[in-house]
Amino acid sequence: FLKTTVKIINSIVTDNYMQIFVVSMHDSSIRRQHITDEFGKQGLSWIFFDALNHQQGLAKAAQIGVEIREDLLSGSEIGCFMSHVAIWQQVVESKTAYAAVFEDDVYLGGDADKYLNHEQWLAGIGGLVKLETMLVPCLLAKKVKKIDANRQLQRLYSCHWGTAGYIVSYAVAQKLLTYVQRRTALAPIDDLMFEYFRKETATPIYQMVPAISIQDKVLHEHNQKFDSLVEDERTEKRRNTDNQRRLPEKTKLGLHQKAARELKRLQRQCSPDNIKRITAQKLAPRSEETVAFK
C-alpha cells in the first residue's frame, strides 16, 4: 500500500496550473465516486492521495522526523495529520508552486473551477488560503482583498476548524514541515494549522469569502451522507481526557541552549520589521463573521 502511494505521488510534476490533491482512503469507493462526480462536473483534474491509517501515519512520522505522542491524538487523527504532512512534503520536493488540498467528503461552490484551474489570483498572498467554511463565527480582517466580483480574501485572526479545503504554497509548505518537525507532539491537524501555526509563526492565513468548499457533515448536518471515523474518535478521545487538549511542551533544552534561544527571541521581537508587523496586526480592524458557502 505505501509503495503504491509513493508511486502515485512521485509521478506529479510541476505544471502551469494548480495541483489538486484529494485525501481519501484507498478503499473508499463511495467517497471517491462522490469526488469524481463533484470535481468532474467542473472539469477539474485531481489526484487521490491514499490516506494513511494509524500505523502508516506513525511510520511516516518516524521517516521524516515528526515525533508523535499517541496519548494526544487518536489513531485516525494521526493518519489524517500525517496524510496532510506527506502532501506538504511532496509540494516541497516537487517544487510545486501551489497545491489545493481537499478531503473526500466536500462539496464545491458553483464556480470553484475559476479558482482551482489557475493560481494568478494568488499573487501577493502569503501562501495559505482556507477555502472551506464550517458555518461558525470566526474573526476576519475588515480589510478585503478582492479576487473578482464574486469572491474576496480576508485575513483570518481566529481558529477556523477543518482541513477539507485549503491552498498551500511551496514556501508555506516548507514552513509547515519545519514547524511540525520541531514539535515533540501534535494537536489535530486543523488546530495546529489554523491556531498554533498561525499564532506562533505569524504566517498570514486568508479566508476565501464566500467559501468554495464545505464538508458533508456541515452542509447536511441532519442528513449526513458520509460517516466520519476521525470525528467519532476525536469525540471519544476528548471524552476520555475530560475535554482537555493542549499542545505539549517543546523538546527540553539545556541552560545554555535556553539562554541562546531567549536572546534570539528578544532580537527578533525588537527588530524594526517585527515591531512594525505587530503594530499593524494590533491596529488592523476586525469583525466576527460566519463565512457563507456559495
Q: Could you describe the 3D structure shown?
A:
By secondary structure, this protein is of the alpha/beta class. The protein has eleven helices and twelve strands. The chain has helices at 2-10, 29-40, 54-64, 75-93, 113-116, 170-181, 189-201, 216-219, 229-240, 255-270, 272-283; strands at 19-24, 47-50, 98-103, 106-108, 128-130, 137-141, 145-146, 152-155, 165-169, 206-209, 213-215, 286-290. The strands form three sheets. It has an eight-stranded mixed beta sheet, with helices on both faces. Strand 1 (19-24), helix 2 and strand 2 (47-50) form a beta-alpha-beta unit. Helix 4 crosses helix 9 (229-240). The chain is globular. It starts with a helix and ends with a strand. Mean pLDDT is 83; it is low at 1-16, 235-239, 241-250 and 275-280.
